[in-house]
Amino acid sequence: MNMLPSAITADKVADWWTEALKVLGDVGLKALNCLIIIVVCVLIASALRVVIRRVVRRIVSGAKSKANVDDTQALERSPLADMRLVQRTRTLGTILQNIVNVSLVIIALILVVNTVDNSLLGSLTLLTAAVGAGLGFGAQNIVKDVLNGMFIVAEDQVGIGDVVELRLASGGATGVVEYVSVRVTQVRDVNGTLWYVRNGEITHLGNMSQGWARAIVDLGVPADADVPAVEDALLTTAQALAKDPKWRTRIIEKPEIWGLESVEGDTLVIRVVMKTRTNAMDDVARELRMRLRDTLLGMDVAVPSLESVQLSGPEGARRVHGANPPRTRPTPVTTTPSAPERGFWRRKRTESASAPAAPAQTKPSPTTKPAPKPEKPKKTPPNAPQSLQLPPKPDPQTPASSDPQTPSDPQAGQDPQTPGDDR
């Protein structure tokens, strides 16, 4: 009887250990499976990374051996090396590594969840639908950027070190490409500003570093210059530049004279072109422009300014019909002469302040006639000639004096003068 409880306790302990070992076995097995999955994914990622690096290294080494150089800087300066291939290969290698890492992480996560509990995958269906809806509405710009970036790199549209002009939906950017990824392209402009451009916003892309470039120089000469002689001298100078050991490695073809480009007033514009390498176009154009200027000065040909000849858009197109209104002379403003001010008549006061007040006016009777109004003196114009006043006739009752001139009349005996008679 005393041995029975101990036997029951031993059975319970044995069952507990059995269940514990079973649970631990299941958990350990699942943990071991998860660990194996993670290790396998890491090994696969490492193996793919090594393969990608070897492919990139082999391509770069082949380009270096073809150019007979040892480093990438010398490869960039070499005229025989395909630097574009090296840049494209390295960019694609980086993108492939990122794609492999993300893909393996997603696969490992799904396998681990399936190993832990099979029912969790069913519940993840709703999560997957939510993620798909988010990608369709909220993250569609990110998906667009990634897809455009993959096509840009795969098609070799742009590479690191290229001079590009990007036209975006809201503006544009021009400069040197410093970094290319599947989502963002970094471009540094001439002012040093680094622009981060999303690949999904790029609508037009102009690459100035692929193939070849053309240096174009326009020179203006007077209208009375000998155009054939000037063209021969300019062509000789350009050919001398192409044969110069310092510049001949940057020039691809012989220079050309495209002749008279335009005529504007007293200026003739002659165009000289030269095909160069993409990274040497600006340097060759500067050197060619300087030598052509010296040649014209040596021929005693004045070089007029091309500011009013070379049209560079609506801002500089002063003589293009419709760009700006024509210049006209200002119309003089004529003012009509104002009428002279008219004076107004004001009654003049004759009564003094000390005069007694006037008697009150009485209403005239109808039988009495009104007194006649005094006549106003007639005004004579200032320039009208004054009439001669004759002396009064002598009274017959008054005896005439023997001397007609009296002291009281100083003007007696003088001839009468008319106004305006200056003597």
Automatic annotation (TrEMBL):
Any GO molecular function: mechanosensitive monoatomic ion channel activity
Keywords: Cell membrane, Membrane, Transmembrane, Transmembrane helix
Subcellular location, principal: membrane
Subcellular location: Cell membrane
Domain of life per record: Bacteria
Region called Disordered, residue ranges: 308-423
Biased composition range(s): Polar residues: 398-417
Chain ranges of the Mechanosensitive ion channel MscS domain: 141-208
Key word Nucleus present: no
Transmembrane segments: 27-52, 92-113, 119-139
Signal peptide interval: none
Topology relative to the membrane: Multi-pass membrane protein
Protein's UniProt name: Small conductance mechanosensitive channel
Lineage, highest ranks first: Bacteria, Bacillati, Actinomycetota, Actinomycetes, Micrococcales
